[in-house]
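Intended use. Records such as the HTTM domain-containing protein entry shown here are meant for training and evaluating sequence-to-structure methods. They are not intended to support clinical decisions.
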Amino acid sequence: MDVRALRRTLRDRAGSALARRFGVDPRALAALRVSLGVLLLTDLLLRSRDLVAFYTDAGVLPRSVLREHVGGIAALSLHALSGSAWVQGLLFVLAGAAAAALLVGYRTTLATAVSFVLLVSLHARNPVLLNGGDSLLRRLLFWGAFLPLGRRWSVDALRAERERECDPASDGTDRVANLASAALLVQVVLVYATNAVYKLRGDLWVSGEAILYVFRLDQLTTGLGEVLANYPTVLRAFDRVWLGLLVTSVGLLLLTGWTRAAFAALFAGMHLGMALTMRITVFPLISVAGLLPFLPGAFWDAATAKVRESRPGERFDAADWSRRVERLLPEARFGAVGAVRTVGAVPAGVARWARRIRPPVVGCLLALVLVWNAAALGYVALPEDVSSTVDPEEYRWDMFAPEPRTTDGWYVVPGELASGERVDVFHRRAVRWDPPPDVARSYRNVRWFKYMMDLRASAYAPLRPQFADYLCQRWNATHEDGVRRLELYYVEQPVRLDGPDPTRRVKLHSHTCSGPA
């Protein structure tokens, strides 16, 4: 065989193998886009319940306290430009509009970029509330901005098809295989792989006891989780399955076809199990959304065929749907479906320049992500000027690792009223030190739980006076008998697997309320 022909054959086979593993079906990208839109809207709706408490100067973290104690991250936040509730509400509405546009695939790239910027801004306004799901959501949006999320099942795609301006050589079904698709898949696997490393560094996960402690935390378990806590053998089996999946998570990249789909389904099943057993809101659903790009074209072919079989005789009229949507949305003309961009908004020369520099930019960003995760694991040392500014270990995928929390607990905030009566100012009831009937529900929601868990740490001690002052103002605004002073207690309950769990009162702060009582 000719040497050149052999090289060409090997190169083609290698390229095909890489494309099968690092390429993404456009329908998977569409499903990811829809999921991100729904998750963003849900997250905004849940956060809006505590808009004043968490995002205004009248809440637990005024901008002055944010800048003084949290650091330069506040500079990234548009939400930190004003402490007024109406400004925060306006930004929430703007973020909701961008998320809705992303959901239906209207000017998708712009909607993705705006959603990412506003999400980063929201997170930077109160980073005390954040968890691993928030971090993953940001990253999915970030890499999604470099991908054609609107190529299928979108307003952009329908309009491009209707106006006959899409590339006649492409029907939008070709696999998307480039550095951005690789970065998206690698990012998801990094979450699992780094978490596996952290878990293996602890003793409880290796011994199979970690999950027993997790399900003994009344702060987290709910519903089915409270039932499973009584079956340690079953929980140990789940421990082994989950740790095994994490350790072998690189298989999400190495496997192809239906084998990959089945492997991804195992991860998705575990995440849905977490949603049914633990009070962690949309975190598991964000993780499931991150697994959608791993589903191959064969899966989407089968799913599409199944939908058609379930609705015989019905045909979806895309052109008619497009005309209806067009009456509701501003007029826009689009280029190729793969690009999906507004004609006239960006000059053609600029668009070509952007396409030219995208691969090296994405490549550099992917390399940065890999180095950052290696530094968080301690395998790479960052330059001193970088590590002195931000510590990668503070932003690591260490959910329940290397060991889960082994102490449960709840808050009691006894306050003295002007009349001399004592009440729990936080729960707005009589002071009770005994365990609540449902510890998880003693925190208003998951964001309050995360905030108050962080409040126990010495690093967040400077935030306690502001939290106490917020409680004073909230009580006095709705009660004639105002609160004069209060004390902040955390009732700590170490988890014991072989006996009753004792309790210990930890006093975190004493506070004298300002203003008239």
